[in-house]
Amino acid sequence: MNALFKASFQLTTPKSPFKRTSIRIKSKDGEAFTCYHYRKEGQTQTPLLIYIHGGGFQNEGTSIHQHMVLKFVEASNLQVIYVKYRLLPDYPYPKAFEDVVSTYDYIMHHQASLNVTDLYVGGDSAGGNLAYALTLYDRDMRFHHIKKTMLIYPVLTKHHTLSSHLTHQLTPMWNQHLNKTMWESYLNDVEDDTYASLLEHDVHDLGAIYIETAEFDPLRDEGILLEKKLKKQGIPVVSHHTQKTVHGYDALPHATITKKMMQQRILFLKGDV
């Protein structure tokens, strides 16, 4: 399946006026991974979005993810660096997180040549986990470069006690059985999971955050609980709790709900929050 996803992604090349450039970045352990830089031809100074795909920390991103980031480039007047982080089972935590941090460091070192004005981060599902982890890291290191964080049905906690965890044991696309299996594989008995299980973190001093959830998703209540914590702390939050939806509805890009939520994501990225 990953070979198919990888081939579909690489063979689906953007058409003019969009450009895709491959970037090789070394991670903390010295091993290299690939990122793709998307932008419009002739684009000057713009915000840059780090986008991190989902897939349970184990699946490649797909051409649907590429379609999404091109929509962001087109409609939000920004550039995107898409992170092809290393995957399970060969690379458990913290490898994917280290890849994301290394991408962040690369951008900081090349900020002038990339013509970056502001820095945003976003991701779906497991990619939402890595996006929020990077936002917390940026805050914890007192860098405060990340101005906006976009979380699409994100993975946020290793604990399994919320109502949506207990209710959605066998739902389509993603369910609690798969969720538990993913966490067991991702953490792999690691002792320090500081930037893996995230819902337990304090939320002070963060930038604006967008949260999108699906009704029939074991992860639903994780997003709702994060929203409540953020609002209590006075953090700007834009939230959309979609109805009659399952996790990963972006797999149907022409569905009414997907089109509607794409517009909401674009408004968050291009607007003032």
Question: Key terms for this structure?
Answer:
38% helix, 9 helices, Rossmann fold, 273 residues, 8 strands, alpha/beta, single chain
What is the highest CATH level, the class?
Answer: Alpha Beta
Q: Look at the structure and give the mean pLDDT.
A: 96
What's the helix-strand series?
Answer: HEEEHEHHEHEHHEHEH
Radius of gyration: 17 Å
**Class from helix and strand fractions:** alpha/beta
- The CATH superfamily is identified as Alpha/Beta hydrolase fold, catalytic domain
Number of separate structural domains: 1
Q: What share of residues is helical?
A: 25-40%
What percent strand? 15-25%
Q: What's the story with the biggest beta sheet?
A: 8 strands, mixed
**Tally of individual helices:** 9
Question: In whole angstroms, how far apart are the ends?
Answer: 39 Å
Shape verdict: globular
Uncertain spans, ≥5 residues at pLDDT below 50?
none
Query: What's the CATH topology name?
Result: Rossmann fold
Number of strands: 8
Topology of this protein?
Blueprint: H1 2-11, E1 18-26, E2 32-40, E3 46-52, H2 63-76, E4 79-84, H3 95-109, H4 111-114, E5 116-124, H5 126-140, E6 146-152, H6 163-167, H7 176-187, E7 208-216, H8 220-233, E8 237-246, H9 256-270
Parallel strand pairs: 3-4, 3-5, 5-6, 6-7, 7-8
Antiparallel strand pairs: 1-2, 2-4
